[in-house]
Amino acid sequence: MSYPPIAGFMVLSAFIASFILGLSFFVAKLKPDGEKVSAYECGFDPFDDARARFDVRFYLVAILFIIFDLEVTFCFPWALTLFYSGLFGFYSIVFFLGLLTLGFVYEWQKGALDWE
Amino acid sequence: MLFQQSILCFIAGLACGAGFLVISSKSPVHSVLSLIFSFVLCSFVLLTLEIDILALIFLIVYVGAIAILFLFVVMILNVKVAEARANLFQYFPLGFFLLSLLYFDLGLLMPASFSVDVAHFIPFYLEWPKAVLSFGCLESIGFLLYTYFPFYLIGAGLLLLLAIVGAILLTLHRGVGVHRQEVSFQNRRDWVEVLHMVQ
């Protein structure tokens, strides 16, 4: 396999990333104080911590994204070998996609996709 | 071969270290970061074993999606400081039980259920270019998963369906008295009836 070029690229990218990040530490003047390192809100003193809690619906959208991401991942090798796996292989993944379509219909009917 | 194995052991050891950092670091954000690090190292382990497509899937699914979900959990739960260190070992028996279950599964059940007569799978006639070139990782998965192990595929589909239904049941609650956007109503609305001249 041709892994050594990949390793070369990884080392190169790590070097470039650390070089650019390190430049801002070594070239620029560093004088941190309480005002500079605190969370910035335009025009007024920051109200609160920057790490605010937020709605669980973002999480729901992320989970639904992952599920269909995995569905596409399962389709990759199938699409590559469809010619060899025959009708049985075709219908096995059709059944799989049908299960997920069932979930998708449920999700649509429940209104998990629309935002209030 | 020895070189490859030593690299493999090194990366696997680093992954174990990152896994230890996950449970031992005080801030949950640092835990999530070390979790991402350990996922990346696991992907490197798969890359060293030349299972390249699974390594990429690891990066896409675990780092791109699961780690973001963990970040969301950290942001939703609003845990600033970790709880007392003393109760770290109270989960030890449960973890040991799960680990022994995993080893039982990996050592005894999986080899029995995944053994397949590969020589049996030669489609109709021997294709010499394919026999010489040999298949890549993605093709091997495609040859076996959809024809020899369709029940695992269906099982994965059932798990994903369960995840959809469970996530929706757990998190979705419709607020009462919240103005919701109705797209078709919005598009059907005629501006002539809506606009009025104010004298």
TrEMBL record, chain A:
Q: Name one GO molecular function term.
A: NADH dehydrogenase (ubiquinone) activity
- Keywords of the record: Electron transport, Membrane, Mitochondrion, NAD, Respiratory chain, Translocase, Transmembrane, Transmembrane helix, Transport, Ubiquinone
**The EC number(s) this enzyme carries:** 7.1.1.2
Q: How does it sit in the membrane?
A: Multi-pass membrane protein
Query: Catalyzes what?
Result: a ubiquinone + NADH + 5 H(+)(in) = a ubiquinol + NAD(+) + 4 H(+)(out)
Tagged with keyword Chloroplast:
no
Question: Can you list the GO cellular component terms from the UniProt entry?
Answer: mitochondrial membrane; NADH dehydrogenase complex
Q: Which InterPro entries match?
A: NAD(P)H_OxRDtase_bac/plastid (IPR023043), NADH_UbQ/plastoQ_OxRdtase_su3 (IPR000440), NDAH_ubi_oxred_su3_sf (IPR038430)
Q: Where are the transmembrane segments?
A: 6-28, 58-80, 86-106
Under Pfam families, the record lists: Oxidored_q4
- Report the subcellular localization: Mitochondrion membrane
Q: Does the keyword Phosphoprotein apply?
A: no
What's its job?
Core subunit of the mitochondrial membrane respiratory chain NADH dehydrogenase (Complex I) which catalyzes electron transfer from NADH through the respiratory chain, using ubiquinone as an electron acceptor. Essential for the catalytic activity of complex I. Core subunit of the mitochondrial membrane respiratory chain NADH dehydrogenase (Complex I) that is believed to belong to the minimal assembly required for catalysis. Complex I functions in the transfer of electrons from NADH to the respiratory chain. The immediate electron acceptor for the enzyme is believed to be ubiquinone.
| Protein family (similarity comment) | Belongs to the complex I subunit 3 family.
Q: Kindly give the HAMAP family that the UniProt entry links to this protein.
A: NDH1_NuoA
Designated name of the protein: NADH-ubiquinone oxidoreductase chain 3
From TrEMBL, chain B:
- The main place the protein resides is mitochondrion
Cross-referenced PANTHER family, in alphabetical order? NADH-UBIQUINONE OXIDOREDUCTASE CHAIN 6 (PTHR33269:SF17)
What UniProt keywords are attached to this protein's entry? Electron transport, Membrane, Mitochondrion, NAD, Respiratory chain, Translocase, Transmembrane, Transmembrane helix, Transport, Ubiquinone
Q: Does the keyword Methyltransferase apply?
A: no
- Its EC number(s): 7.1.1.2
Topologically, how does it sit relative to the membrane? Answer: Multi-pass membrane protein
- Name of protein: NADH-ubiquinone oxidoreductase chain 6
Quote the cellular component terms of the Gene Ontology held in the record: mitochondrial membrane
List membrane-spanning regions: 7-23, 29-49, 56-79, 91-116, 152-172
One GO molecular-function entry: NADH dehydrogenase (ubiquinone) activity
Please provide an example of a Pfam family that matches this protein in its UniProt record: Oxidored_q3
Q: From what superkingdom does this record's organism come?
A: Eukaryota
Q: Which family does it belong to?
A: Belongs to the complex I subunit 6 family.
Q: What does this protein do?
A: Core subunit of the mitochondrial membrane respiratory chain NADH dehydrogenase (Complex I) which catalyzes electron transfer from NADH through the respiratory chain, using ubiquinone as an electron acceptor. Essential for the catalytic activity and assembly of complex I.
Reactions catalysed: a ubiquinone + NADH + 5 H(+)(in) = a ubiquinol + NAD(+) + 4 H(+)(out)
UniProt-annotated location(s) = Mitochondrion membrane
The reply on keyword Thylakoid is no
